[in-house]
Amino acid sequence: MFVVVPFFTPSRVPLPRSRWTPQAPSGFVAVVDDPVRPDPDIGATQYAARLRTTMAGWDVSVSYYDGFDHTQSFRQSVSQAAPGVFVPRITPVYPRVKVPGLDFSTTFGKLEVHGEGAFRLIESNGRDHRFQGIAGVNYTQDVGWRWLDQLLFIVEYGRETILKRVQHSGILEKDTSPLVGDLLSDSGFRDAIVGRIQAKLTEDTSVKLSGIADLAVTPSYFIQLKGQHRLTDALHVEAGLDFLTGKPETFWGRWRDNDRFFLVLRYLF
Amino acid sequence: MHRSPRVALLLAALLALVAPARAADPSAADVMKRQREVHRLKDEEERQTLKLVNKAGASKERKLVRYLLSGAGDLDKILVRFQAPRDVENTALLTWEGKDGNDDQWLYLPAVKRPKRIAASGKKNRFMGTDFAYEDLRPENVAANTYAFVGAEALDGVDCFVIDATPATERQAADSGYSRRKMWLRKDTLVIVKREYYDKQGKLEKVESHRKLVNVAGAVWRANEIEMHDVQNGSRTVITVENRVVNKGLKDDFFTETELIR
Fold first, then answer.
1. If DSSP codes are grouped into helix, strand and coil, which group holds residue B234?
2. 3-class DSSP state for residue B257?
3. DSSP-derived 3-state class of residue A105
4. Short-list A98, A140, A137, CA closest to A115
5. Is the pLDDT of residue A90 over 90?
6. A265 touches chain B (CB under 8 A)
């Protein structure tokens, strides 16, 4: 499989006043520029390729991506606000990366085992080369009771390792920065355990409890309890609770005030 | 049923093959192997309508297309893709039959947007809310079962072999949702016309009936209507074949994960 994307489109980021936008610590002053997007020319073309095969019950694939990271990094500099008065200046930019990757999955009886890993190698606008990987198992237990048909268990471990720093990159450290901690971090899988228990009550109704524990530096957690029910083929309802916990400067803890209840009605036509 | 002279000749040849075997006291496994051989096609494509009727009589309808490719070593590849209603549209299941019943299976759910390999335990689960388990949708796997004659019986006025099938190994027993299955095969065409499925406690769980048999190629017959009746919970699923194309030249690379996500 080979994909070419001639134009770069960044990910949507939270609006400045969104509750999902990290808030700077009080007293922190900086000039923040508009994001600098790659020039819309042939140099911004992105490529990806993937080769996969199945051998002796194993699905294996290798992939390669040459393009932009769709979330921003921050170039730091200093701006003169007035004669003799200098303030930090932050310019959001998009790193160009080359990403060779590998993934696999197989089954051993009732156990499904899977994993994937990728080397995120910086071409420009980045601070460091990283390896990111996640691996885990799924286990399905058929129950067959009238009100509990099946239980699904998923456990995964995610890890991110810095392979090499890019010298004099001018890019702000996103993780554990002075003053702002993990407020700029965009990865919840630096040292993380992911788990889910899903109970399929009937063909139309299921309940699942999911959680992510980010253990990098200071632990923080995201927990979600969600129920889904198919009222008709066209009308589905889901409801749940999100809990985000941890110290304010941690990855999930920065959204600790964003615990919520949600109710979604979905009509398909 | 209408039979062409060519089909009659093939059937006569088939019966000639079966008759000496019976004289030599053939095993039920021999009959099942012959049944599998006789009704194999290079490939087939079926467009089906599934009617799901619950105990109260309320019904839902699903539409799907099913592709099958006969492979080497009597092992098939099967791709099933739902086309309607909207909430299951493009949900697809790919099965590569494996030796001794150790199949590879992948499920594609559009909401997840990537195919997922599913473990053996999933095979006894019901397929998309129908009364068919994943394992019911695959062709009879002769290597994965032990067969025994339990008699002969006329069904709708046609003589049938009655054969019991039990999982061949403990592993296959654990992977299957059934303790045994009882099958009725027409003696003239070796078409399976009825199956009874018994749960792990040995109680009758489901009855599958094959109706509206049609001769699709040579000595090959197919049912244009299959009903699965869950006698324990009262629900039933009826598969009606709306259109069938056989030996159209499907290739191996059609039965891949890549095709699942199209």
1. coil
2. helix
3. strand
4. A137
5. no
6. no
**B1 confidence band (pLDDT: 50, 70, 90):** very low
Residue of B nearest to A230 (CA): B87
Phi, psi of A188 (to 5 degrees): -95, 15
Interface check B119 vs A, CB under 8 A:
yes
User: Between A159 and B120, where is the model more confident?
Assistant: A159
B96 close to B74: Cβ distance less than 8 angstroms: no
Distance CA B167, CA B184 (A): 18
Lowest-confidence pick of A24-28, B5-9, B62-66:
B5-9
Contact flag B257-A138 (C-beta cutoff 8 Å): no
B125 touches chain A (CB under 8 A): yes
Q: Which residues pair with A65 in a beta bridge?
A: A48, A99
- How far apart CA B58 and CA B74 sit, in angstroms, is 40
Write out pLDDT tens, residues B83-95: 999 888 999 989 8
**Beta strand pairing status for A2-5 and A235-246?**
unpaired
Evaluate if residue B100 carries a pLDDT over 70.
Answer: no
Q: Does B110 touch chain A (CB under 8 A)?
A: no
SS3 (DSSP) at B45: strand
User: How many angstroms separate the CA of residue B188 from the nearest CA in chain A?
Assistant: 39
Tell me the average pLDDT of chain A. 89
Q: What confidence score (pLDDT) does residue B95 get?
A: 87
